[in-house]
């Protein structure tokens, strides 16, 4: 009888010991996850600071030759020659290719242009031999560069816009508390102030050197008809697969990838965001990892440089926005507009546009959205979204989606636009 009682007496102690061990394991696991998350966040912060430091340093080099040292942005891709004497500006929204060459008082002849670095640069950037021939047949404009003081205001505004983009990305991270967000904004404000001071020093150095800017010889031609098809075609199978699996429209996936990276799988930004659909690891990346892939860790930059992986995360995030965060929006077109805006700024900032003030309550916003027509929703977003960048983004993606809806029927096999 005693032998039978012994396990009965020990069993409660065993259960208590097991519970305590499991609690300790769970506590340790959560701490490990928190430490890993903090380490990743520090890596992202370091990446952003290094990226902007390199960006600002390159701007300093450009200021020695260009009074308006433009660099690539969401609106246009800009590529400089190695000697910085020429640059190519690709504006896909305007469907234009602009070549600018620094020259003295006399413009370059067609023969001189053909021998310059510009010819090689054009062929590399747009992969089309005919475009340079067309360029040679175009009458160039001669542009006198302004003084550097005129550009300083615009360059400061550029820093402000980049600052807003980073703040915007943190506001899109639904995991951050208001206190954490406030602390992060204070840190970003200090970094912005330092960047402005650095710019002022660069401008002052140019003034001291009394730089004499050369004239700009500028050509503008239309992009080749097959330009976008060539850029997008390597990834169409992956876009098709994810459009089907995540129940998203193919034209929308293409429009967002176009707006985010111009179909550059190696694109990276100061946010930081990576790849074709510019995934922010700590927000969109973590959301997809947790909610769709049942993974604890956000994707790495190297993973997001892989087109198939990046498109999975981009389409997955659109699915989460559409079928979870903003699922309560009844009208499909209204929901699409809100999803596009949320892809850029987060569902909380979309809610602000309808709630007013700093109210980020999505459920409250849904009630108001569902009383509006889709055009009223679009108008409200364009008027009341917190950041002008998101307004421009929504407008751009809307237009691009319409263009891709028209283009896609002609994109099959070896067809071109």
Keywords for this entry:
single chain; 417 residues; alpha+beta; 2 domains; five-stranded antiparallel sheet; 7 strands; globular; disordered N terminus
The backbone outline, from C-alpha atoms, is: globular
Write down the secondary-structure element order. Answer: HEEEHHHEHHEHHHEEHHHHHHHH
Q: Which residues sit in consecutive blocks of at least 5 with pLDDT less than 50?
A: 1-9
Which class best fits the helix and strand makeup?
A: alpha+beta
Oligomer: single chain
Span between termini: 88 Å
At CATH's second level, what is the architecture of the largest domain? Orthogonal Bundle
User: What's the total helix number?
Assistant: 17
Mean pLDDT: 88
Strand content: 5-15%
What is the radius of gyration computed over CA atoms, rounded to a whole number of angstroms? 26 Å
CATH topology of the largest domain: Lysozyme
| Domains (count) | 2
Tell me the helix content: 55-70%
CATH class of the largest domain: Mainly Alpha
Number of strands: 7
